[in-house]
């Protein structure tokens, strides 16, 4: 069994100062044990959930991000196909549970949204970075308050990412792009998810 691979940032509790410097968990590595929160504020054991079904795990910046909302909507176009393949879809952001509920209502989402407000999961998977002062000011000028959205003062965001995990928690596919405006196309995700499933003997 592969050992959980975490970045230096996760080990020290720090994070790089720019999205381009993140060091994501590698394909073939096992995700560590992580606890998230449901929109109801209940603890969610990610490893336990993944052990029940192969998983499409999506990290997005927050409900305030228009590119993220577009991605969440696009995910719905392939959700039925992913479910038919046996997958579950979990989408994670730094938003508080209360903010998640707003996103569910606004986008009419059926799949599961989870809160990583402390950013421990994003740090453990090596996709967290610290937002600099200039960008923080720009966000506030647009009415975006990262501290209010997460309920925390860490000023961390995840680089948007998609991981396809098997039931052992092993990363079978990953897409991590520091350019937050570019997201994985739904059809590419569906093809990757299909390819990650065990193939019947004799193929």
Can you characterise this structure?
With 203 residues, the protein is α/β, with parallel strands linked by helices. It has a single domain, classed as Glutaredoxin. The chain is built from eight helices and nine strands. It has a five-stranded mixed β-sheet. It has a two-stranded antiparallel sheet with strand order 1-2. Helix 4 links the parallel strand 4 and strand 5. Helix 3 packs parallel to helix 8. The radius of gyration is 16 Å and the shape is globular. The protein starts with 7 loop residues before the first helix and ends in a 7-residue tail after the last helix. The N terminus is likely disordered.
Concise description?
The protein has eight helices and nine strands.
Question: How far is the N terminus from the C terminus?
Answer: 25 Å
CATH superfamily: Glutaredoxin
- Summed up, the domain count is 1
Radius of gyration: 16 Å
Q: Helical residue percent?
A: 25-40%
